[in-house]
Amino acid sequence: MLKVIPVEEAVGLRLAHDITEIIPGGHKGPRFKRGHLIAEEDVPRLLDVGKAHIYIMELGADELHEEDAAKRLARAAAGVGLTLTDPSEGRVNLVAEKDGLLEVDEELLFRFNELGDLILATLPAGEFVREGTVVGGTRTIPIVVKEDLVARAEALCDDRSIVSVTAMPAKKVYLLVTGSEVFTGRIKDGFEPAVRKKVEGMGSTLEPATLAPDDPDVIAGHIKDFAAKGAEVILVSGGMSVDPDDLTPEGIRRSGADVISHGFPVLPGSMFLMSYLRDVPVLGLSGCVLHDPVTAFDFMLPKLLAGTRVTREDILRMGHGGLQKKHGHHHH
Question: Tens digit of pLDDT for each residue in 15-25?
């Protein structure tokens, strides 16, 4: 544990805290870092900065230094797709090893933090993260902790990890753009470039868009055709509201897809429709994808590309945090 002793007796022991040295007109910075092994020549310099007595660390057999503890905590909490940094000021970071979907076991994270005297903080789950992104960090609160506390954290993570980054395989994505005004060439489709940028940005391929008129049977036929061609994700854009002349949802239903939810508790993106044609996700997109940089699409796409099966409950839970704040309509 921590102990105060005269500096002359501290040779060969570890310093329990940073000691700052201020040189007039020069630098101010830690002269000695916490954990520094005190040598004979350090004694006069410590006395020079007014440290006749210092705190040293005496680790009992059942105790761990914060850096060793943090390394073990990080190893316990980290699942696939992560690398761990060396401790810096007691903290170890969890870094995405490759682009992918960030997954966090929220309940387990809570139980880990509930142990006390140690913490793990993460980015929100469900985000697409790039290689090299710090997605979590862990440390102990005191400089020295009991070994059995760390062992309890390890036991919590015995059979499952708290944080992981699931690699996203390159999927074959098909896009059907509905709307007679686009089909007849009266207006140019804007969905394909918007969707392409996002799909390709996550490492998948988007087939050239197919255009369809507002006819549920034609829409259904294309969806079935895409599935037969090996589509792994099907996106259907345009005509998604509940107006009688918006026939896209009816077309999705007629394809035989099982509708999980028509309407998401998300703004913008509430007019989305999530369905599955056997195992192929068929996502109906509303017009907001065209003009809002962040919509329900950005949240759904990484899940669909990673192959996560989305449930009705997953969609309903999106209400918390579902008000997207990144679309620039700020009052000044």
Answer: 877 787 776 77
